[in-house]
C-alpha cells in the first residue's frame, strides 16, 4: 500500500509539472514550413517569442488560458490536501477530498483543451493547412488522462 501511495504521489507531481510546462510553453501548434509555433500566450517565429496572438482578444482563448490555470491550481491543491490527509486522516478512511479536487482539475483540463481543439487546433488563423499539434497540446491530453486516473484512485484507496 505504501508503494502504491508513493507511486501515486510521484505521478501526481509529474502531472502537475507537465501541466505547468504545457500551459507556459508556446508550442501548442507548430508550422511545418517554418520554425514557428503558437501557444496560449504568444506567437514564436525563429525562436523569437515576441509576437502576440492574432486572436489574443477572443473570449475562447481567454477561457482556455483560465481553465488551464485553474487546472494547475486544483492539481496543486489536490496534492497539498493529499499530503495533509495522509498524515491527519484516521485509518480506513478514503481520500475523498483529494480525489474530488483532482477530478475538478481533470474537468478544467477537459474544458480548456476541448475549447482549444474546437476553435484553434485546425484553424487557418494559426498557420496554413501545413501545421500540426505541438508537444504542449499532446502533453495536456496526457495530463488529462493522468489526472482522471489519479482522481479515481484517490477516491478508491483507503488509508491503512
What key phrases describe this protein's structure?
single chain; 160 residues; alpha+beta; Butyryl-CoA Dehydrogenase, subunit A, domain 3; five-stranded antiparallel sheet; 4 helices; 5 strands; 11% strand; elongated
SSE map:
Elements: H1 2-24, E1 29-31, E2 36-38, E3 42-45, E4 48-52, H2 59-88, H3 96-119, E5 131-133, H4 135-156
Antiparallel strand pairs: 1-2, 1-5, 2-3, 3-4
Tell me what the structure shows.
The model has no long low-confidence stretch (mean pLDDT 87). The protein has one domain (2-156): Up-down Bundle (Butyryl-CoA Dehydrogenase, subunit A, domain 3), CATH 1.20.140.150. The chain has a 5-stranded antiparallel sheet. It is 62% helix and 11% strand. The protein contains 4 helices and 5 strands.
Helix content: 55-70%
How many domains, in number, for the residues?
A: 1
Total E-strand runs? 5
Query: Low-confidence segments, ≥5 residues, pLDDT <50?
Result: none
SSE ordering: HEEEEHHEH
Q: Any guess at the CATH architecture?
A: Up-down Bundle
**Beta-strand percentage range:** 5-15%
Keywords: Glycoprotein, Membrane, Transmembrane, Transmembrane helix
GO biological process, one term: apoptotic process
Main location: membrane
Family: Belongs to the PMP-22/EMP/MP20 family.
Amino acid at each position: 500500500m505504501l508503494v502504491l501511495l508513493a507511486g501515486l504521489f510521484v505521478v501526481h507531481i509529474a502531472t502537475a509539472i507537465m501541466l505547468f510546462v504545457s500551459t507556459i510553453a508556446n508550442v501548442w501548434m507548430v508550422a511545418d514550413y517554418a520554425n514557428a509555433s503558437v501557444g496560449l500566450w504568444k506567437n514564436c517565429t525563429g525562436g523569437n517569442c515576441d509576437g502576440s496572438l492574432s486572436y489574443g482578444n477572443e473570449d475562447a482563448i481567454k477561457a482556455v488560458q483560465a481553465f488551464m490555470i485553474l487546472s494547475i491550481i486544483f492539481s496543486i491543491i489536490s496534492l497539498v490536501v493529499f499530503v495533509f490527509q495522509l498524515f491527519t486522516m484516521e485509518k480506513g478512511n478514503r481520500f475523498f477530498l483529494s480525489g474530488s479536487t483532482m477530478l475538478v482539475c481533470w474537468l478544467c483540463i477537459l474544458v480548456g483543451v476541448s475549447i482549444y481543439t474546437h476553435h484553434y487546433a485546425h484553424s487557418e488563423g494559426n498557420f496554413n493547412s501545413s501545421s500540426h499539434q505541438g508537444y504542449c497540446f499532446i502533453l495536456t491530453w496526457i495530463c488529462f488522462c493522468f489526472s482522471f486516473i489519479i482522481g479515481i484512485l484517490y477516491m478508491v484507496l483507503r488509508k491503512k
